[in-house]
């Protein structure tokens, strides 16, 4: 039985004001159902897609065009695609409002680790276990899109991350990625003595400062506080246990670029790409944007030190943005065709390579990127953990909380109280 999220009037207004609709392949705002065309058995189908990756619109447009051509050639189905790509800060709320209003897109993106459990429990995910693409998934990736022994999504982003660093700057100063917080403090001072800003700060979009949360929680769970998530789900824990995360947050904030709350992700990527800072607490999902700003940049990925315990300096492993199918789709057959086309034997490698995403399937045959190889070294040494399953509502709250903390409107204790409340509120809705 489906469970709906509560929808406020302001959330509905958000949909009206912020849902940036685009279209591909002659999409029209008309029919959303399969219709009988005028030529024999030809059908016209309008497929609605909701994917919160607006910086990759060109790549998705091109890939969708290939899918449309394939459906026409092989099944004589004329597919019209309505593609909506809101930004990351708004996508989750807009999507939940749609679902609660019985206006589900045929295909939509969610965060595999954070959102699959609640979306699955609410009845919003089609079981994809029997689909052909499932047999192509890498063993290391498949668990991230599996729940109750059912595969419910096709993963796009499978990432190994911590922070990004400018390899040329590090090489010129004979620096290596630090393994402890004290070493990071020493490295920061070395950079400053050489008139180099240590960290890029781009906090205009709240999802960026929230990245500190999975890095901190994941590493601390791995190295001792193993039942933290379980206890938080029972209202038996508190983020006070994670308060040490402010040690690295404070170090970064005190040694970063100016006007952080005015700089968004794209501008942050451009600044980092052009050497405005030596490091950025960000994932390699921004690789395409960084390289577009500076094709010659040489950057790497390293684990972020949290304390003087080197065992806590670990790479985060997980799958984030993934595509799912709505069980209520009136064009489910075509939606499933597209989901399988995402891992098409012929076209998928070029698509993932153009996005600069990690391989997620056995059919992906493109050469891995240098930053992927950097992270893989740590993973092979056992210096990694699986991305912790933190509710999206809590991540949204920490993003806003850390923006306010940066501007000195909230204290550390205020942020902790807000996070505890957000998790308890989540538990109330998702019992």
TrEMBL record:
Domain of life according to the entry: Bacteria
Alphabetical list of PROSITE patterns matching this protein: PROKAR_LIPOPROTEIN
Keywords, alphabetical: Signal, Transport
UniProt-listed InterPro entries: SBP
Signal peptide range: 1-19
Entry GO CC: ATP-binding cassette (ABC) transporter complex, substrate-binding subunit-containing
Listed Pfam families: SBP_bac_1
Coiled coil regions in record: none
One BP term from GO: maltodextrin transmembrane transport
One of the record's GO molecular function terms: maltose binding
TM ranges: none
UniProt similarity note: Belongs to the bacterial solute-binding protein 1 family.
Name of the protein: Extracellular solute-binding protein
